[in-house]
Amino acid sequence: MPLINSKNNKVIRDYSIEELKAKAREMRAYNMISIHAAGSGHPGGTLSIMDITAALYLKVARHDPGNPGWEDRDRIFWSAGHKAPALYIALAEAGYFPVEDVVKLRKLGSGFEGHPNRLKLPGVELSSGSLGQGLGVAIGSALNARLQGRDYRVFCIMGDGEQDEGSIWESVMCASHYKLDNIVGIVDKNNLQIDGPTKEVMCISPLADKYRAFCWNVIEIDGHDMEGILKAFDDASRKKGMPTVIIANTVKGKGVSYAENVVGYHGVAPKDGRSGKESLDKALEDIADKGFTKEKVDALLKTASDYQAQVDRKIKDKLPKFSRDYWWNSQDDMKVEMKATRMGFGDALDEIGADEKIVAHGADITSSIKMDMFFKNHPERKKRFFSVGIAEANMLEVASGLAKEGRISFVGSYGVFATGRAWDQIRTTACYNELDVKIADAHGGISVGADGATHQALEEIAVMSYIPNITVTVPCDSDETYKITKAVAYRHGPAVIRYAREATPLVTGPATPFEFGKANVIRYRGRRKNFAEAFGWKLAGGYKSEKEDISLIACGPMVPEAMRAAYILKEEYGIEARVLDVHTVKPLDTESVLKAAMDTQAVVTCEEHQVGGFGNIIAGVIMKGKKYSSPLVMDMVGVEDIFGESGSPWELMIDFELVAENIALKAKDLVEKKKSR
Fold it and tell me: To 10 degrees, the CA torsion angle through 64, 65, 70, 72?
């Protein structure tokens, strides 16, 4: 069925096979331009799925761009949400919005997020990106069609690496149980995922036989043969009494010579930028027709840059202003080095991995979270490294089994998956049994930036801290992450290490005081050439009050922001702030928290997390242990009960009002309230 007008049932446009082939080429060109403009994205999988996408949105599916909520439309669910650019371009080509808008990909506020957000764009059926969840939703939608007596069909696009997730197979079993012949699963089988060939990461073969064993109708096709694609969809529509899966054999990076079958192009923009051997221009030379002239491409990139300029102005206007610019490295003095926090985890794992008791696990982002440092410089350790693929729940169970036999198991993934998807396994298997499972809660907070809400962990401090028998740590920078990782490795029981992905200010060093479970007091001493040298550090247990006006109690990357806030408060208002670096959230240094509250009678908690996750823990300790009659004023800085979104990490920090400037204003207000009382 071609695109139709839902009001009069007239055809909007019916594409021929040759026109579909031409559209697929055009869509690939827009795809590469938008990913280049974003500076990140997933060219590999978007290029491999594009022929199917063109067929589905322009020829096969029944939908109306003029009426996105039409009840009788066919539903298309993208379980493989990282292929979002292909979805956006298909919707644009179908007429949901101007195709030129897709170049705003991954930019703050554009709606074209790193993973789809159904609340931001018409035509998006499901906010997705957490792999393994889309097929179950598609089944619910298909069941609804049956209940309502509607004849709409449901399609679900999945990746081959996604087949690692156990939830996929629960859904596969469910669909066959209900004999849902109105649902079609589509597997983009391009045989590559982040960690390498699918057969090496976690072998899914024989995939067709597995689906048949679950009583599905299986159609295997060449995913780049337009005639074969259309025939497969037609055959699926005729099959009665059972669900259909189309296993499309594709080439990752299809059409772009330097990206075809290259693992490294899973999630990066053209490496050479606009021109060169691995560039946007080379990609367009490979895939585009003559319509993509230099002038046209320049105009599209200008649309992206003009939009980014608007974002830059918005962010600049939102940042509170003071007598001078206190932003990182904006002055001739107070310079700070930026370093990816994840490097500290990798360096520690490289060192402690010499212990034969220690094993490590990969969940398909092994290099990204620096879990690969376990074996990178020591190939002999590979025997103690176990890839489980994209299967976080199973990873926790396998790690627990090894820990039960006396091993120390390190696991990890994006924090939202490592601690969120696997929460029950952490609680019941690892924690209840007090097993030595050490969880790399990687890319915590909004540090993944443009990937968007599905990949931003903003809840795990709370959901982890309330489980018995677990250690929860939130180090402030790379060096502290190194120290924390070594400390928890040999601390009995499960532990969480929450660390950021991107570069954050390096404010500690080898000589900085550190004791597991004990907070540090940080005091601003005056401007220096080096930011870190402008502060004095001392273990909180041995610190004597300097009669500060307020305490800024922080964890993780909010510690450097709290330090910068202390700098602003002193320079602008003469307010003295005690910064408390709480790198160990559980067990918490309650004595130092209480002392800070009693000494200053004013507290601001600072977290890159849903507000109150860390703040309420601190508030609970203070209220439970409060032993003085003087009033206490308290406030919290954190993400205000919203999901994250796409944008650069620093844009999001400012937009969510998490930076030092916001902390300083909130602290100043509290100090004034305290004095007025």
Answer: 30
